[in-house]
Amino acid sequence: MPKSRASGTRKRRTAGTRRAGPSLLVGTRKGAFILRGDAGRRAWRLSGPHLLGNIVHHFVADGRDGRTMLIAARTGHLGPTVYRSTDGCKTLVEARRPPAFPKAPDGELKREVDHVFWLTPGHASEPGVWYAGTSPQGLFRSEDGGLTWDGVCGFNDHPSWMEWTGGPQNGTPDGPKMHSILIDPRDARHMYIGMSSGGVFETRDQGRSWRPLNQGCRADFLPDPYPEYGHDPHCVRLHPLHPDRLYQQNHCGIYRMERAEGRWVRIGEAMPKKVGDIGFPLVLHPRDPDTLWVFPMDGTTVWPRVSPDGRPAAYVTRNAGKSWQRLDRGLPRKQAWWTVKRQAMCADTQDPVGIYLGTTSGEVWGSVDEGKRFTCLARHLPEIYALESAET
Amino acid sequence: MKVYIPGALHSYTREASSVDAAGASVGELLDDLDRRYPGIRFRIINEQDEIRRHIRIFVNSDQVAGLSAPLHREDEIMIVCALSGG
Q1: Has residue A107 been placed in a domain?
Q2: A352: in domain
Q3: Mean pLDDT in chain A?
Q4: Which sign, positive or negative, has the C-alpha torsion B27, B29, B35, B40?
């Protein structure tokens, strides 16, 4: 009997349901939402809010098991935490031991996790492992799917931690961040992190030892514009099919590194001068390591951090940064002063690739043809902090 | 002792606005509270055992500065989320 029931169910599903499209996991200043697309990515259905009133810095699905989701959350009053769901946010379980620094002995720096800023599922060979980056800069690891977290001592307790990070007062207006935790798909021990501020660092022994990886990258806000560390990478990406190539959107431009060369090359120089190459997110094509998208922000004068001239546009390169093409069809033509944060732009894995972005004014925009034309998928949401895609 | 819980923490106390807990100091009381309602302490107290920036703790009508404040059997404790935000 159980066998026949299962068989009947399968037949009904085959006949009665369409293949689902991608989902967009939206983290906002007031909670989390899920925007589910149909198979053609033409119709989108919004659900939520989940954790209404919580500041959601990152909302990430685990592509390894296809069901686990973690949410980095805090409220304005309470301490930071992480929530876990395995049923599409119908139920959320709080971490039993959220990321936290060790209690400092008297006379030493008392570090306090202000918020969990970044979440990354671990290597495919380590199911259940996740990494979290915090503000101020701390790296934490969970081995039980996000329920308990321990500090990665090789980084957090490194004697040079203060020197590398500049300390808890040195960072973005919303606090210093660790972000862009990247894991080499060939080797679970080989990882990169980005820090604002601090720069890009690399480990080859799963976090026991670290070295800065910032050669060639400017830090023109410092007395020495080419220091060993102290840079401000906004978003760093590693291509899963070409893990020896890194890209970063930095405070001082867009860069590419061939890891064997070990030197960042500024590929944003090819952007139009009136637009510049300042911004926060950087999104890779899932199958073409030469193709990436950015969303420029005004980085002149006092750093308005809005779309240059009030005319939002994505830019794409299909030759690893040699040339860039403006993509603004469907986007507002004028007086649209958008800000798109570093986690608030993503791609799906479909063909053609879908490109999505969330604005601080609470709108989600998407393109199902790799940026040729954008449409608004959702509006009237709270300030969007993060947007990640998940295949369901 | 009776402990008044702010609305932001009712999800931990199964929506109760006041609960019982015991301890000879504020720190001990919060440890007991965390045993009864796991996770609640870290939302109030940071990893350096300091009261979080936007939290206030009152014993009867007096605000306390830290976890070492002594408690007596007849005291009432109120945990408050400070006015802030937007």
Answers
A1: no
A2: yes
A3: 93
A4: negative
A111 touches chain B (CB under 8 A): yes
pLDDT tens string A316-369? 999 999 999 999 999 999 999 999 999 999 999 999 999 999 999 999 999 999
Residue A175, C-beta contacts closer than 8 angstroms, at least 6 positions apart: A114, A115, A135, A136, A168
Does A77 contact B84 at a Cβ distance shorter than 8 Å? yes
Q: Is residue A167 part of a domain?
A: yes
The span from the CA of A135 to the CA of A118, in Å, is: 9
CATH code where residue B25 lies? 3.10.20.30
Q: Which domain holds residue A263?
A: 20-101+112-391
C-alpha span between A252 and A232 (Å, rounded): 8
Which CATH number does the domain housing residue A173 bear? 2.130.10.10
Query: Nearest 10 degrees: CA dihedral of A73, A77, A79, A84?
Result: -30
Comparing CB atoms, the residue among A81, A95, A100 nearest residue B47 is A100
A1 found inside a domain: no
The DSSP annotation for A303-370 comes to ---S-GGG---EEEESSTTS--EEE-TTS-SSS------TBSEEE-SSSSPPEEEE-TTS-EEEESST
* CA–CA dist A369, A348 (Å, integer): 11
In the predicted structure, residue A16 carries a pLDDT above the cut 80: no
- Apex CA A153: angle with CA A149 and CA A158, to 5°? 145
CA angle A196, A200, A206 (to 5 degrees): 115
pLDDT digits (tens, 9 = 90+) for A48-70: 999 999 999 999 999 999 999 99
The Cα–Cα gap between A178 and A201 comes to 11
Identify whether B86 is part of a domain: no
Phi, psi of A327 (to 5 degrees): -125, 105
Structure-token match 């064997």, residue found: A260
| CB A126, CB A188: distance < 8 Å | yes
C-alpha to C-alpha distance for B11 and A255, rounded to whole angstroms: 45
Mind listing the pLDDT tens digit for each residue in A262-293? Answer: 999 999 999 999 999 999 999 999 999 999 99
Nearest CA in chain B to A97: B39
Selected residue of A29, A30, A75, A77 to mutate for chain B interface (largest B Cβ count, 10 A):
A77
Q: Is A91 near chain B, with CB under 8 Å?
A: no
Contact A94 B49 (CB under 8 A): no
Domain-located, residue B14: yes
A9 band by pLDDT with thresholds 50, 70 and 90: very low
Q: In whole angstroms, what is the distance from residue A101 CA to residue A110 CA? A: 9
Is A78 part of the contact surface with chain B (CB cutoff 8 Å)? yes
pTM equals 0.93
Residues of B in contact with A95 (CB under 8 A): 39
